[in-house]
């Protein structure tokens, strides 16, 4: 691939916003059209957007991410997460353009004892995971020049995510219970974006499926503790008590994988991408958030 330009979908999401920031810093040309210019629900709009520029690659960050709501909005989840990526990949292939597609740990059932690598069998637990797994299959089938990048537990200084939620709830409540029996790794949206652009600008990449998360492992309770430690040191109000609770004490419509740990050796070998530790990643996010007047 080349230094661009790249057509980026989902530009207002966490990873899409990260791509805009990283691209500006690295001097990489991107386009992030709004829905008026690129409607993922309209195949004609997708075709027109792909034909509308001399793109070096398509980077698809768009997704339906309402995990619980997907259980009752199956058609919408599959339209965004499976049908649209498939059409993007076909449109790109027709013009000889590669596609980079962002996927998720939810394609796994979380039952493995250890880190998931890219060759492990998929077995999604719910509609969201099933729609993302279908999107992976659609991209693979439509465009041989593809990269699928699975990630997990995305966090950033913007948008809706666990870190911002903890800061908000910590300012409101004296006691908070956080799930301690789901294990994974928080992943900085900006670090994911940097990895995507490194892949996109690599000449003759090895096509296929890769994992990217920040290094290490943690429970959601561990992450909450790290957030509150930093917030407390910055003079922010935090809960008096942070309780470790089981998943069973916080029932949700969709089942979450108990194990979301993703191995990153393959991406390190193919692209020399070495994810930084998750504590360093969230520390950078909190440095940005805790300099603001408030977190909303």
Please give a structural write-up.
With 296 residues, the chain is an alpha/beta fold. It contains nine helices and twelve strands. The strands form four sheets. It has a six-stranded parallel β-sheet with strand order 2-1-3-4-5-10, with helices on both faces. β4, α4 and β5 form a beta-alpha-beta unit.
How many DSSP-defined strands? 12
Number of helices: 9
End-to-end separation: 39 Å
Shape by Cα distribution: globular
**What would you report as the Rg, rounded to the nearest angstrom?**
19 Å
Strand content: 5-15%
Largest sheet: 6 strands, parallel
- The level of helicity is 25-40%
| Spatial order of strands in the largest sheet | 2-1-3-4-5-10
The whole-number mean of residue pLDDT values reads 95
Provide the low-confidence segments as ranges: none
Structural class: alpha/beta
